[in-house]
Amino acid sequence: MGVAHAADAYSGAVVRLMLVEDDRTMRETVAAYLARAGHDVVAVADGDAAISRFAESGVDLVLLDLMLPGTGGLEVTRRLRAMRRDLPLIMVTARTQEHERVQGLLAGADDYITKPFSLRELDLRIRSLLRRATTTPRATSDILVDGDLRVEVAAGRAVRDGEALTLTARKFDLLVWFLQHPGVVHSREDLIREVWGWNVGDPSTVTVHVRRLREKVETDPSRPTRLATVFGKGYRWDTDGSAGTP
Q1: Dihedral sign, Cα of residue 217, residue 195, residue 95, residue 37
Q2: What is the DSSP secondary-structure string of 151-187?
């Protein structure tokens, strides 16, 4: 895991993290920094150890290297996500090609950071993701309804046509935001800032999460009638699928 050292550790609330990194030097470097920043760190060297120790570790967030010996990062992500749907997970990768980053997001990662990275930025990303995972989005009502779609905000539950939807915390936040702001076009940068609380971020992250959200809320995701793309501008939620994609 390539890193660029920061001068000072960032202080803040203590959380319990699992760091999965096969390179011993990098594992120890990152774990030591995050510990100085006030986190409680469980560090493991491979994906199999991460899976076996996850249930007993009681971690708040997983920081996972994509390239691991044995069980790879993508499969580890899928298995951890199956064990805990709302687990905040950041994937670390040296790969800069978009389709490879997309693979991680599709597997269930909430965010990713590419090598080399600033350790202070990593700490800030961790705290930002945890804030989003533990703060319920505000709503004018705890129950949001659009046609056959019903969202119970406080309970973190979404149901479509009587069937519960399996959504990560990131996608649930997006769904609540869209339902709260129907008929309004939001750019990808707006969604990064307003929904997830990031000052910076890769817009392709939004693209992937919107794509996966459509698979849950649209009858035909290839011809969306609820979550419309406004070309060159962003995305818009059309109440009860009444307007469609322009």
Answers
A1: negative
A2: EETTTTEEEETTEE----HHHHHHHHHHHHSTT-EE-
Model pLDDT for residues 19-43, shown as the tens digit of each residue: 999 999 999 999 999 999 889 999 9
Q: Maximum CA pair distance of the chain?
A: 55
Going across the sheet that includes 16-20, the strands are 40-44, 16-20, 61-65, 89-93, 111-114
Taking residue 166's Cβ as centre, other Cβ atoms within 10 Å add up to: 12
**Tokens representing residue 18 in the block:** 């699992």
Tens digit of each residue's pLDDT (9 = 90 or more) over 184-195: 999 998 888 888
* 77 touches 107 (CB < 8 A): yes
What are the backbone angles phi and psi of residue 56, rounded to the nearest 5°?
A: -90, -5
> What residue type is 39 in one-letter code?
H
* CA-wise closest residue to 197 among 105, 241, 131: 131
Q: Quick one: three-class SS letters along 43-98?
A: EECCHHHHHHHHHHHCCCEEEEECCCCCCCHHHHHHHHHHHCCCCCEEEEECCCCH
Strand 143-146 and strand 149-152: pairing? Answer: antiparallel
Task: Work out whether the CA dihedral 153, 13, 62, 98 comes out positive or negative.
Answer: positive
Domains of the chain plus CATH, in order, are 3-134 (3.40.50.2300), 143-241 (1.10.10.10)
